[in-house]
Give the backbone structure.
Amino acid sequence: MQKVRQAQAEQQRAAQNTASAQASAQESQNNLRAAQAEERRAAERVSSAQAEHRKNNQPQQSQTTGENINILA
């Protein structure tokens, strides 16, 4: 009977360890997903900043009205 109780206690400890490991794995998965989402947001901010930088640093093209003025009169 003693061996049965010891085996049952061991089984209970193993079940608790399994549950703990599963909870830890779930938390790790949640942390991974959060980190990946943060990485995506950061990449989007970089892309947006690069586009803004390109827009602000394009050479300004002179605008003409399309009229020609003859100054050799």
